[in-house]
Design a protein that fits this description.
With 324 residues, the protein is of the alpha/beta class. It has twelve helices and eleven strands. The protein folds into two domains: 77 residues, no CATH class; 221 residues, Rossmann fold, CATH 3.40.50. Helix 5 packs across helix 7 and helix 11 packs parallel to helix 12. The structure holds S-adenosylmethionine (SAM). The site of S-adenosylmethionine (SAM) has 22 residues, from helix 7 and helix 10.
Amino acid sequence: MSDQSTDKAADSNADAPVAAPAPNLSELPTGGVPLFAMPPVRAPEGFPPGFEYLASEIHTGPGPALRLMPQGYAFPASAIHPFDPVVLANRAYLTRGYFDEHIVQGFIDRVYGHTLVTYDGLAELSNQVRFCEMEGIEGDYVELGAYKGGCIGIMAMSNLHYGKKPRMIHAFDSFEGLPQPVAQDIDANFNAMFKLTDEQKQGKLETINAVAAGEQYLLELMRKIEYPADKLRIHKGWFQDTVPVAAQEIEKIAVLRLDGDLYESYVVPLAHLYDKVVPGGFIIIDDWIFKGCRDAVTEFFAQRGGMPYLHRVDITVRVIRKPF
Ligand SMILES: C[S@@+](CC[C@H](N)C(=O)[O-])C[C@H]1O[C@@H](n2cnc3c(N)ncnc32)[C@H](O)[C@@H]1O
């Protein structure tokens, strides 16, 4: 698989940097724990130019899982997707140093098929909720861009496991996919990824039929998790319509998870919900790989006196802890 995908990527992406030779594992100092530094690798086939991932993380662990990660298999090496077949096959060896990681892995297993978010993105989210529960950081759990409900499910399970009582969870989505992008969203990566016509790039609140899923997936997952129905609030529709209304009803937010991909899908919730996040709460930005997201977040904080520290979770997820 690795050789094939590397060759195909090389054909379609001739200008990409050449991967450095793999380190000789037997020569690496282990001290009982093998260390494995992945070299820079090319994007897998199907990813647009510019998506070369620098798999810069130094993985520590029992070894076999990471040694079995085929070289050139770029995506799981730099952004470990929990449902990638290679990661799944080696799941028993996957340890990334999270608090209660075996419990977190149980949560992640239960959202199989319901999320696009990486292992680190989901594990961090679980830990942020755990932290809020254990440290008494009050407020609701909120996601903008709930899609099939995987992150909502992680919040729910972590809340039930670590908390004394279920909190209010808010899931926002059109449940019919992304709306049209605006000019700020458009760059070469965006064009290569979404392949839209000019007609579809007018910023209209009409679906472009990308990342679309009905709310039944979310509802089914939350039923399986047995989260109380009266503690889940689904805000169905375009954020531009639903968020200003919901902002009047939501008082405090402990975790605000932004995953709407597009410029306006960040501008709107930041304007209406950022001030609801309590000091010590978390703001998760899922789409740092997208220009529209970076522009919206940067502009928002420029108006607020400067960019806070962005904690990197994976290739695209960033987290801000609201200052006290
Ligand atoms: C990448 S998906 C979210 C992935 C999800 N958080 C997960 O766990 O996999 C982006 C979602 O945001 C929604 N979305 C983006 N912009 C929106 C908007 N302006 N209004 C409503 N929904 C929006 C899309 O419908 C889509 O379901």
